[in-house]
Amino acid sequence: MRDFACSHCGQQLAFENSVCLSCGSPIAYSLTDRNLIVVGDTDGVVDADTFRMCANLHTARCNWLVDADDPSDLCASCRLTRTRPSDDDAEAMEAYADTEDAKRRLVVELTELDLPITGRAEDPTGGLTFDLLSSRFSPVVTGHEDGVITIDLAEGDDVHREQLRVSMDEPYRTLLGHVRHETGHYYFTVLVDDPEKLKRFRELFGDPDTDYQAAIDRHYSEGAPTGWEDDYVSSYATMHPAEDWAETFAHYLHIRDTIDTAAAFGFAPAGATLDRSQPGPAGFDRLIELWLPLVWSLNMINRSMGHTDLYPFVLPGPVLEKLEFVHELCTATA
Ligand SMILES: [Zn+2]
Ligand SMILES: [Zn+2]
Ligand SMILES: [Zn+2]
Fold first, then answer.
1. What pLDDT does residue 209 have?
2. Fewest CB within a 10 Å sphere: which of 44, 98, 131, 154?
3. Prediction pTM value
4. Helix 241-264 crosses helix 317-332 at what angle (to 10 degrees)?
5. How many Å lie between the centroid of ligand 3 and the Cα of residue 237?
């Protein structure tokens, strides 16, 4: 993610800001410009004839702009959501807004990577869409099927999510991690689109058509196999080749976004940013060369504050090979 500043007063801004906390100017994010801009008709700004605010400004804390001539009143991120809780479910609406926050970060990164984001309007049976559902009254299973990503909004509750994280012995569990992982399942169908790529997928991850229910049953009765750390990025990735792919895809997004942010703040060279796709094996080697010392230092910084590691994962050779395959596929479309 980039570093932003108010064009009116120079105050540093965060991606989520809808108002400048220093001068009070209304702020909005333009996906086209990948920038936060002052909305209004003073200097250096967007005027209301060109853009409108997304209709979800208050419901989802969305600070994104919509082109004035766009028939939708929702921004490029909000329009990907097909189902959301009802306005009178205050608890679920809060979790919905948190999930949309994470999704906006996801959409920016997918756009930076130039990955196609095909919605349901363009592809009614396989396009990407989100059902953000509360499991308070009926069960909801977080997952992906034919482009539809379902998120259980109970995950928006920090206490609940942390309890799950500890009970499942996971080192990391966040909403952003969830949307990156589930989107990985969608991009499997988009990116692994010919027999050659599928052949390579099978070599690295295994058979994507392995019986899924049997894999779940085995995982939750026996746990991850001993020594899984040598071949997988997480214990969850051991469950099924499709889960290994989704976990690896999520890690690729974690790594690229974190390097991008580090570069924006001078902790990594400017050439490492997402606006350069860094294609090919040399590009991948370069990313890993930047990533390993960066994440080591970030982990040590967290420990200085008494926190657990920022990135509590190791990347053994087989995981790097899988990440490189994701890299090849993501940068080939750029
Ligand atoms: Zn300002
Ligand atoms: Zn929006
Ligand atoms: Zn999954």
1. 95
2. 44
3. 0.95
4. 70
5. 9
